[in-house]
Amino acid sequence: MRDDFVFVDEVVSGIRWDAKYATWDNFTGKPVDGYLVNRVVGTRAFCAALEKARDKAAELGFGLLLWDVYRPQRAVDRFMRWAEEPEDGRKKARHYPNIERPQMFEQGYVATKSGHSRGSTVDLTLYRLDTGELADMGGDHDLMDVVSHHGADGVPEEAAKNRAHLCAIMEGSGFSSYECEWWHYNLKDEPYPDTYLDFPIE
């Protein structure tokens, strides 16, 4: 692993993770290139900011569950190849019900050069510390639809409140939000703003 990158769970105590792209539970329907273990990796600067977010979340009765942080460029390349493959329908209803695969890139849900490959961008959600249950966010991870946008219409009141909590937690800890995805945040002061890496997570 590149210097200054760490397994996030070894540095930030009290977080949970489920590295979706290392599993069959993602929009491609199978583990993605470069994800060889179900762990999350990030920069040390990212971890320092995430500790602040963890503490702010705890004040509201929440914990943090991470889906993805560092993403090898080979995984992004795999997404691009997958987008050109024939539609098999297995994941469409859950992840991209109203668009076709190539439109994921056109509409900004997947990037050909991802901030994740710089090591300080995170996909995450909240869970309740008292029950361990995931907070209702009005939609799942990687639901590529307008309902996933910040301020989307039709989001139930409780889910909208939880999205607002997550946004306040992250923006108050040095991260910026991404308009199209309520779960996606980037460290403002990221250490590698112009570097896209490709080492595998293993």
UniProtKB/TrEMBL annotation:
Record-level Gene Ontology MF annotations: D-Ala-D-Ala dipeptidase activity; metallopeptidase activity; zinc ion binding
Cofactor(s) listed in the protein's UniProt record: Zn(2+)
Annotated residues for binding of Zn(2+): 116, 123, 184
Active site, UniProt feature: 181 (proton donor/acceptor)
A GO biological-process term: proteolysis
Marked site (Transition state stabilizer) residue numbers: 71
Catalytic reactions on record: D-alanyl-D-alanine + H2O = 2 D-alanine
InterPro entries per UniProt: A_A_dipeptidase (IPR000755), VanX_actinomycetes/firmicutes (IPR058213), Zn_M74/Hedgehog-like (IPR009045)
One Pfam family here: Peptidase_M15
Catalytic activity, EC: 3.4.13.22
Keywords assigned by UniProt, alphabetized: Cell wall biogenesis/degradation, Dipeptidase, Hydrolase, Metal-binding, Metalloprotease, Protease, Zinc
Co-factor: note: Binds 1 zinc ion per subunit.
PANTHER family membership: D-ALANYL-D-ALANINE DIPEPTIDASE (PTHR43126:SF1)
Function statement: Catalyzes hydrolysis of the D-alanyl-D-alanine dipeptide.
Family (UniProt): Belongs to the peptidase M15D family.
Protein name: D-alanyl-D-alanine dipeptidase
Organism: Amycolatopsis orientalis
Chain's gene name: vanX
